[in-house]
Design brief:
Blueprint (H helix, E strand, L loop, with lengths): L1 H12 L1 H5 L7 H8 L1 E12 L2 E6 L8 E4 L4 E10 L2 E15 L2 E6 L5 E2 L2 E5 L2 E7 L12 E8 L1
Antiparallel strand pairs: 1-2, 1-3, 1-10, 3-4, 4-5, 5-6, 6-7, 8-9, 9-10
């Protein structure tokens, strides 16, 4: 289940390209902010009733999201089992901007449109709006993973 959430968070990352600029002709410069290697820091769930933050362990923070200029991405995951930090898998796929929206695929899956993003300085927040994550309908509810560029 944790990998599913991480994958959704990763896929959400790619919205940066489609939404970080008001200038429709400036997509390339916006994507340059996103391209690189990112370290996962925490997961955040935001509801109108409050916010839940899950800081990643030092082990989980050894994972990396690599976003390449050629339209591909890879993310490695680590998780601590019995006090041992172990490789917990890898996801990869493609990204592209279509009509000013970021569309991603994972390991050949169908297209996914990302709905939540933010880049400020070297901090990236990516996720999805989801009106059902709070246990009740909450139209402003969303979740995201926070990354720092390394």
């Amino acid at each position: 289940m944790k990998n599913v959430i991480k994958t959704i968070l990763l896929l959400s990352l790619f919205v940066v390209f489609g939404c970080s600029s008001n200038d429709d002709n400036n997509t390339e410069s916006d994507s340059s902010l996103f391209i690189g290697i990112w370290k996962p820091i925490k997961s955040v769930y935001v509801c109108s009733s409050g916010t839940d933050i899950e800081n990643y362990t030092a082990c989980e923070q050894t994972g990396r999201l690599t976003v390449r200029e050629n339209g591909t991405w890879t993310e490695t995951y680590f998780y601590e089992y019995n006090d041992i930090c172990e490789d917990d898998g890898t996801s990869s796929g493609t990204w592209e901007i279509v009509n000013d929206k970021l569309i991603v695929t994972e390991n050949g899956s169908g297209d996914i449109e990302i709905t939540f993003f933010e880049i400020i300085g070297n901090t990236l927040k990516l996720g999805q709006y989801d009106d059902e994550i709070c246990g009740e309908v909450d139209e402003s509810a969303h979740y995201y993973g926070e990354y720092v560029k390394i």
